[in-house]
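Priority: medium. Attachment 1 of 2:
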């Protein structure tokens, strides 16, 4: 290193002292002198290395040619990112067709050489994260396995790997046998194989595991989870769902598009967040979930959409203590005029509704009846013209009052008549409403956008109406003290 952290800090302090001295220079000269300063080189080494950690490895290492100060900083990198295909920043890793298309169009010709360089790299610091995207060819598989072996020797903490094209590549679990790497805490695998032996103990230190579109049998999935007893976060996306899930420390579970082979049971008493997309679950699926705070549900393969009221009742039975709930709903054929469920602990409800542009939205009032203590309601609507028309479906029990509702947020709001009608109903039936906001942007959900795919392709778009027109329609014969915000 050319300068230590202390020396860099001292230089920075000197520069700051000089800046606060009074000067009689013209302001234009001061601005020119400030622009000519190299502020980056004045930062402490730790901050500069943390910036390099966020870049791809080729870019980070190439900064060594900038100056003597930068020459050796890359050696302190804790994260390395290598990708054979050149992927756009917006790619979604659950969509393999997008990754294959990018691989065919743009390919890093130096991937094998880069992997060989990394495997032979002598390091003085521990590794935190290794991110790999490659084709799975024999040539790539050999150098990738060598790179992983080197990472294990240097105490790797997180491995994130996605395989495209040849998806029969098997992750080298044998490199973790005998507890050789107790520091591995996170493993994310996509489009490859993982088959561990019965008494495998190499993943006992894992706290996060993500398996995406894996080529694994039901037995192989069960064996992997059996040796990961300390998991806190688990993502299972498009894999065979196991029969029994017993993870006492699990706090976050994402279960998307998992094909069920019969009934199964989820016993995770510490679970706080659940995201599920698949067939309707039985109430007996979940055991002792008193710590659950947020649930996101999207039921697929549903042949009985007319039973939405009963479906909501099933949800309230499965999750009686949930405080935040996100539901994906298609407009039902029949809504029965009765309170379909009771969520006594629910405070925040988010609704993602799919409907035909001509259909009304007043039936959504059934959700207010189901959650008497709800304080925040969020809605986002997408319109699909090809859906069967259920116009005229109205929640008959409109004579209600919701005293707990304080905030309403309507996303993807275009000021259509059905949207204004729902907003008017909320203003009229929620006397303690403080604020209702209208946002033209869609509601963004999902903390990890690399795991959750882009939602709702092909929805119709409309020109938003003027806010003054919306206001005039909104308060026509309706009195409310709520604040109205347009975003």
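Attachment 2 of 2:
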């Amino acid at each position: 290193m050319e300068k230590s952290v202390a020396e860099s800090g001292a230089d920075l302090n000197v520069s700051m002292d000089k800046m606060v001295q009074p000067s009689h220079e013209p302001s234009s000269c001061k601005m020119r002198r400030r622009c000519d300063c190299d502020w980056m080189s004045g930062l402490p080494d730790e901050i500069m290395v943390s910036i390099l950690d966020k870049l791809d490895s080729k870019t980070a290492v190439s900064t060594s040619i900038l100056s003597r100060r930068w020459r050796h900083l890359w050696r302190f990198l804790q994260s390395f990112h290598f990708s054979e295909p050149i992927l756009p920043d917006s790619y979604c890793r659950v969509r393999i067709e997008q990754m294959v298309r990018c691989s065919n169009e743009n390919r890093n010709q130096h991937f094998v050489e880069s992997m060989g360089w990394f495997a032979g790299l002598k390091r003085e610091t521990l590794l935190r994260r290794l991110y790999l995207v490659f084709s799975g060819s024999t040539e790539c598989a050999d150098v990738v396995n060598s790179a992983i072996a080197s990472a294990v020797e240097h105490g790797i903490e997180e491995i994130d790997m996605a395989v495209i094209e040849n998806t029969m590549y098997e992750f080298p679990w044998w490199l973790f046998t005998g507890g050789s790497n107790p520091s591995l805490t996170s493993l994310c695998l996509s489009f490859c194989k993982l088959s561990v032996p019965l008494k495998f103990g190499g993943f006992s230190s894992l706290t996060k595991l993500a398996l995406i579109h894996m080529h694994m049998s039901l037995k192989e999935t069960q064996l992997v989870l059996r040796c990961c007893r300390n998991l806190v976060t688990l993502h299972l996306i498009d894999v065979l769902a196991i029969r029994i899930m017993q993870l006492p420390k699990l706090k976050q579970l994402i279960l998307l598009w998992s094909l069920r082979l019969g009934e199964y049971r989820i016993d995770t008493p510490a679970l706080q967040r659940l995201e599920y997309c698949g067939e309707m679950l039985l109430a007996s699926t979940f055991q002792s979930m008193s710590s659950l705070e947020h649930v996101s549900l999207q039921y697929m393969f549903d042949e009985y959409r007319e039973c939405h009221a009963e479906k909501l009742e099933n949800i309230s039975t499965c999750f009686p203590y949930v405080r935040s709930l996100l539901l994906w709903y298609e407009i039902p054929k029949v809504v029965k005029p009765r309170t379909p469920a009771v969520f006594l602990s629910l405070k925040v409800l988010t609704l993602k509704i799919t409907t035909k542009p001509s259909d009304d939205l007043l039936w959504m009032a059934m959700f207010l009846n189901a959650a008497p203590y709800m304080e925040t309601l969020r809605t986002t609507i997408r319109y699909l013209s090809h859906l069967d028309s259920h116009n005229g479906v109205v929640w008959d029990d409109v004579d209600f009052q919701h005293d707990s509702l304080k905030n309403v947020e309507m996303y993807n709001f275009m000021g259509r008549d059905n949207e204004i009608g729902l907003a008017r109903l909320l203003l009229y039936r929620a006397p303690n409403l403080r604020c209702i906001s209208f946002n033209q942007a869609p509601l963004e959900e999902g903390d990890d956008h690399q795991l959750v795919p882009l939602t709702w392709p092909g929805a119709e778009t409309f020109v938003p109406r003027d806010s003054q027109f919306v206001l005039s329609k909104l308060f026509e014969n309706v009195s409310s003290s709520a604040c109205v915000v347009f975003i």
